[in-house]
Design a protein that fits this description.
The protein has about 230 residues and is an alpha+beta fold. It has two domains: about 10-70, Beta Barrel (OB fold (Dihydrolipoamide Acetyltransferase, E2P)), CATH 2.40.50; about 80-230, 3-Layer(aba) Sandwich (Trna Endonuclease, Chain: A, domain 1). About 15% of the residues lie in helices and about 45% in strands. The chain is built from three helices and 16 strands. It has helices at about 80-90, 150-165, 195-205, and strands at about 10-15, 20-25, 30-35, 50-55, 65-70, 75, 105-110, 115-125, 125-135, 135-140, 145, 170-175, 185, 210-215, 220-225, 230. It has a six-stranded antiparallel beta sheet with strand order 3-2-1-4-5-6, with no helix packed on it. Strands 7-8-9-12-14-15 form a six-stranded mixed beta sheet. Strands 10-11-13-16 form a four-stranded mixed beta sheet. Helix 2 (about 150-165) packs parallel to helix 3.
């Protein structure tokens, strides 16, 4: 997934009210939109390098959006709205080996009145629902983790994927690791043990879990490598 233009490098001052970050950019302070409602645990140290996208739309209240943070020497893609675009690009370019050569790829499809999943795939008349989770948490050099805060919504998605299997669909959850240099992935059960328990239930029920790392730079973010999932 390519950015519309090259990103601008600045220094993080602070994040506040969830949707705002102040950044030092070219010797001035600018306020940028933070397109991530999560905790962003471990990423928000003052003076971290950040990369902003400048927007030309005169209707936008904020001219910049936060796209990447450099934390502990790794670039991290923090724009959650990019996650589905990255996966969509990967599906259409056969970058996810378990989901190659689909006959149909549809985004944002309702499963029931309350839940829609990120993608519905069809291959040889077999339909699969795909849910995508954006991963930005890492607490050691090689292992990415999800979630970074308690997520009741995430647990609900796991249980609904089980319902999809019962109705004859295949079900996948893709942990999209937007963090450089990761080799492994695990569920952060110390942060949300309920999510971890539901993950184990979903895995036993037949939900397929995949973790893929992204290649990240100032011009694009694309899926790069499958990671090993560690169950503890």
């Amino acid at each position: 997934m390519e950015f519309t233009k090259s990103l601008l490098k600045g220094k993080l001052i602070k994040r506040y009210k969830r949707f705002f970050v102040d950044v030092k950019l070219n010797n001035e302070t600018v306020t940028a939109h933070c397109p991530n409602t999560g905790s962003m645990k471990g990423l928000l140290d003052e003076d971290n390098d950040v990369y902003l996208l400048k927007h030309d739309d005169p209707k936008r209240k904020l001219k910049y959006s936060l796209e990447i943070i450099k934390a502990h020497r790794n670039l991290v893609g923090v724009n959650t709205h990019m996650a589905n675009k990255i996966v969509n690009h990967a599906l259409r370019n056969n970058l996810i080996k378990e989901l190659k050569d689909q006959d149909s790829i549809k985004a944002e499809v309702f499963f029931n009145k309350e839940t829609r999943f990120d993608f519905l795939l069809e291959k040889k008349r077999k339909k699969s629902f795909i849910e995508v989770k954006n991963v930005t948490l890492f607490r050691d050099k090689k292992t990415a983790e999800f979630p970074d805060a308690v997520t009741d919504r995430g647990s609900k998605h796991l249980l609904t994927l089980i319902d999809a299997i019962k109705k004859g669909y295949k079900a996948y959850l893709i942990f999209l690791v937007q963090i450089q240099n990761m080799e492994n992935f695990k569920v952060a059960k110390d942060i949300d043990n309920k999510y971890y328990e539901n993950y184990l239930i979903a895995k036993k029920a037949g939900v397929n879990f995949l973790a893929y790392r992204c290649k990240i730079d100032k011009k694009k973010i694309i899926i790069e490598k499958k990671l090993k999932i560690i169950d503890e």
